[in-house]
Design a protein that fits this description.
- It is a single chain.
- The chain has one domain.
- 63% of the residues lie in helices and 2% in strands.
- It is built from 16 helices and four strands.
- Helix 3 packs antiparallel against helix 4.
Length: 555
Amino acid sequence: MIDALQAFVVVAVLGAALGSGWALAPYVARVLAGSPTFLDRLLGPLEKRTYRLIGTDPSSGMGWKQYFFAALLLNVAQMAIAFLVLVGQGALPLNPQGFPGMNWELAFNTVVSFASNTNLQHYAGESTLSYFSQMGAIQFLQFTSAATGVCVMAAMVRGFKRGSANMGNFYVDFVRVVSRILLPLCLVAAVVMVALGVPQTLGGYITVKTVEGATQRLLVGPVASLVSIMQIGTNGGGYFGANSAYPFQNPTPITDILQIYLMLLLPTTLVFAFGELVGKKRETLPILIASYGLLAIDLMIAFIPSMAAVGPGIEARFGAFFSTFWTVVTTAVTTGSVNSSLAGNNPLAILSAFMGMVIQATPGGEGVGIMYMIMYIVITVFVVGLMTGRTPEYLGAKINARDVKLVMVAFLIHPVIILVPTVLAYATKAVNAIPGFSSLPTSVGFTQILYEFTSSAANNGSDFLGAAANTPFFNVATAVVIFVGRFAPIMVLLALSGSMIGRRRSESQTLRTDSGSFSLVLTGSIVLLAVLTFLPFLMLGPILTYFQGLVNFLG
């Protein structure tokens, strides 16, 4: 149970994210709508030269197929560039530690993971990657993957907006999101991080003498710049293997709170920007209530009083509260960064983490969280329409049978790509290649494998295994799950949105989707759809672990 001060911290951080999101949303909406902003004079000429260089007409719109394949091909090209950097880093500059190149399967897993905004790490960055790789591959993909998520969200919203003629131009959206949203925010955040003690240097690792007379190696590098895009872009991949549990990446409670806030900032902003983009600000209400309401439920579950025998969930510098708060938030917005070992968290905190990842809209990752929320809304209005005898519609567009089929395909992709590889990991005995796995209790081991593929499919990337999963099976299997989990739902949901363009819109609403009552129905629908789908498997994992610990404590 948390005390009054800790409850205040939760309310303050969530309130700051909501307030900042509300204030920033009009600017973000103007950027996505192509409207003038205060950065036009500085960035306008550079953007025009960029469009000429890549040969795109900024006034030319795209259909959903053209938009999706433009995003897919650009991301694949970026993966290829990053792959070459990682495997060839031994011959590239800014490698004062002399690290050799990655092997192909680990490099493949890494580039797919980071290009998809997942950032699953089967390596420890401080002992594997050069400074050039950290900046030229890892940070590079963190910017591009975050921008891609915002772009496809904007395209989907345009399809649902009344009067839209096309989905927009992906290349224009991409350039504007990177230059006008991500870079300015990350520049400010990186400067603040440096001021708070996070290193930012291209000098080599430093060997110092401690007060006891021993020597210690200080692992430094361009850390602050990576941390800023890692959290603002809901990426989660850290500079160090221990991520934000490492003191140089997260030195104080102030940086800890700041990083939690940064994780929430843009996902919350995009919720408010949704209302701005569709021209109906009240349509933000159900998304806001459902996403933050479910986040509140996750926090309450995670903060249920825990017995010592169940697991303390403590990160030594910050304590159980901040470890749990971080774990719930990082999975609610599919960031995936950690400030403690997940193995040390209470099983109920891990259960809350699973809920955030299977829902993916609390408020979810950069842009994609809004897309999943629209998916849930379409399912909900269809079910409510059947129950009340009203024509199902959303934003004036009638929802037909094809629309429902598309959203159900998008929904079912997730459990399939999680459960099938989980079974294969056991059937092929690939789990035996993980050091120490055979000595774990059955429920704990199952939780770790299920979590590995859930975090991969949800583009989250937080995982129990870390570098221990650097095996051929897990490198390839999680890369495939990550790629499908990222791009397949985006394709299906863009197809849904594309079918809305030109569709006749009704002037009067047969079902209001901007009311408090609909918000409650939507929340219940999400719980029934997402959580109950995975409930049998969660019963075998964190829920069973919790009750086993409870029995041991009471007995």
